[in-house]
Amino acid sequence: MSEGDSAGESIHGKPSAIGNFFKRLGQIYQSWLDKSTPFSAVRWAVTLLLTAIYMIRVYILQGWYIVTYALGIYHLNLFIAFLSPKVDPSLLDDPDEGPALPTKQNEEFRPFIRRLPEFKFWHSATKGIIVAMICTFFEAFNVPVFWPILVMYFIMLFCITMKRQIKHMIKYRYLPFTHGKRTYRGKEDTAKTFAS
Taking the model in full, what pTM does it have? Predict the structure, then answer.
């Protein structure tokens, strides 16, 4: 095989049928992801439905609590990344370095840039639920454990993590949501205002 050949090619330099199949499957998957991008409410509704199905399955089977706990920790980490700014102000040596957050009322509005964008948050959360669902079909992942301890530990971890995140938001004066922030009118709107 020459240096330019890819892993999906056969010995003779032609693409293998298996390689083509997975490449085509990946393209179809990416196409569906691209088409779903503008429909955030529908995407999250499907994810919540998958979560409900997963929870009902775990409740009926009375097991796989470790898998559920791991899924909860994974979703908590995704949520914290979703709430965090892309450039953490506490890590900057010079406050003028990088895209800064507005700190005064009269400063120019700059949108909040997340460390984990909404679409990637949704995609990762949904994949996590699907992987956890698949794990419930294998008895090897059903580790016997006293589940109330896991619930208490998760609640404690959630509270500590969110307290730290809220303190960070207060210290560096940022709000991770753009809803309700001041918006500016375009030239068309101001021209109508002056004409009346």
Answer: 0.72
What's the average pLDDT block by block, 10 residues per block, for the chain (196 residues)? 49 75 92 91 96 96 94 95 83 57 56 85 96 95 92 95 91 73 55 51
DSSP letters, the chain, are --TT--TTB-TTSSBPHHHHHHHHHHHHHHHHHHHHTT-HHHHHHHHHHHHHHHHHHHHHHT--HHHHHHHHHHHHHHHHHHHSBSS-GGG-SSTTSSSPPP-STTSPP-PPPBSS-HHHHHHHHHHHHHHHHHHTT-GGG-----HHHHHHHHHHHHHHHHHHHHHHHHHTT--S--TTS-----HHHHHHHHH-
Q: Which of these, 138, 156, 137, 139, lies nearest to 69 by C-alpha position?
A: 156
**Does residue 187 form part of some domain?**
no
Domain-located, residue 196? no
Residue 86 is encoded by which pair of tokens? 């892309």
What's the rounded Cα separation, in Å, for the pair 149 and 168?
29
Burial track 132-154 (b if 16+ CB lie within 10 A, e otherwise): bbebbeeeeebeeeebeebeeee
Total structural domains in the chain? 1
Q: Residue 138's domain spans which residues?
A: 17-178
